[in-house]
Amino acid sequence: PKVTIKSAVFVGSAVERAGYPGESLPEVAFAGRSNVGKSSLINCLLGTKKLVRTSRTPGRTQTINFFRINDAFFFVDLPGYGYAKVPAAVRARWGPMMETYLKERRTLRAVVQILDFRHPPTPDDLALWNWLQATGVLTLPVLTKADKVKKSLRSKNLAQAAAALALTSCDLIVFSAVTREGRDLLWDRLMPLVVP
Ligand code: GDP
Questions:
Q1: What is the fold, at CATH topology level, of the domain defined by 8-194?
Q2: What is the distance in A from the centroid of ligand 1 to the CA of 196?
């Protein structure tokens, strides 16, 4: 079924748990390395260009941002990781902020973990992936920037990512915010998770 976005509203940003909106709707969170294309992916899913700001200065967004979609579910933009120029104090806050959210948010249905299709998963990617698996959070891995990968390298990169995550290739969603490849498939996997 085709997804129609009737409304997408920025609800607020939080660092502490007290700042989260109430647990009234199911939600899906998006995580990834800074600059991986997380904002572009969320905007592509929503079909609006400017809801989530794509940043020129990676690693600056260090809050958890909540968006209410169709008054039916939340999309949650988690702070990016792995950007070297983030000050140590900011980086030190990232872990506890993520851990509190991921462990305590009762309405969290899944995390979309966004990886770069051009490169193998980074140690930071794998650390988050393994932590999510160990914690029992349903995780949908998405390989983005597919438009930047030569046709001849696609199956190799896919196999490499699948091996690193201990998955099979069909568990991975290949995506591009430029060509919109993978958008329908990702929505097909998300929709059942955000029904009440
Ligand atoms: P974020 O920091 O993870 O939110 O990343 P952004 O969405 O801000 O994207 C970082 C950079 O990658 C920007 O220059 C985007 O235009 C670019 N980008 C994001 N997604 C894609 C994609 O699917 N294909 C291509 N070619 N570029 C992308």
A1: Rossmann fold (3.40.50)
A2: 31
